Amino acid sequence: MNTESTAAAGGAVYVVEDDRAVRESLELLLRLRGFIPKGFASGEEFLDYSALQRPACALLDVRLPGIDGLQLQRELRSRHPGLPTIVITAHGDVSTARTALREGAVDFLEKPIAQTVADARRVVATVRRTGRVLVIGYILRHHPSWQRFVDIARKLGKPLVMRMNLNQQSAGAEWETHKRLMDALPPIVDCGVHYVDMMCLMTRSRPIRVQAIGARLSDEIRPGMYNYGQLQVVFEDGSVGWYEAGWGPMMSETAYFVKDVIGPRGAVSIVAAHAEGRSADIAGHTATNRLRVHHAALREGSFARPDELVDLSDEPDHQGLCDREQAFFLKAIREKVDLSEHLEDAVNSLRIVLAADESVRRGCAVDLRKESSL
User: What is the pLDDT of residues 63-75, one digit of tens each?
Assistant: First the structure.
């Protein structure tokens, strides 16, 4: 699907979504990006539409009244075999993802990729078997400042000590969003996959053991869930990582944004210019502002080189970062990019955060070398 030329030529995007607010929001976004959107409230309404343009693609919600998104996808494959489809849903699961990919979906995004390692591997196997494109939404991979952060960390020698957290003091609508997210996953899983993914990129070593703690700090979240967690992961090369995440009105904003890596040759840290009271602001979660690079080398009892401050003030904002991620998705489709490593990394980071959740619930360390432990 040549989305770039589709946009330039005023290509059509058919949005099939029964929620009017969501449908109209998607149409507005697509129109602003240069596409010609047309919305439909049901699968039947779209199938009755006979004036399909080319180039075009269809954006299908899974849960629709009457014929559902997957049935619609199957029917479109029969009637319009050259029409690419992208499946979207707020209720994704592995069975739905595998069915959508088998039926020809270009993409089915879910973060994390699944809620068990076995299911994640089944999704990856389906992608490989069908030859479809699947990009996991690990947005930090596309951030130029985080790419530089990883590159500098790799030059610090081994083993690495990686310290990261993202605590969010939330209230009102933000707290309501967090509570809905915790209906499915705790913060160290939902947010943790992003930062653990960065740790895996830095070490390029096999994780072998995970230990974690967690606490339920509010009666407003469902029983059995916890809104604060901290994990520790040990890698085969001796590197260690620490990640902490907490959500809610009770969270402290002291040291809520720690991102640094220490190695034998020195350290690199993200020095973010965050305003107090904004820990739940999603726009600030990917911002870096500056990197501080510390050199460990000594000369006559003093540091041989002063710390360096790398200015990153021209980094993309959150929307710009989303655009970069979509550009990568487009490139993967157009150039048939080999995403094998990308998918394996997604499974690997998921193994770590799910092991952390298991460690919280069992009260003991989890050995990742034993597949049965997950």
Answer: 788 888 888 888 8
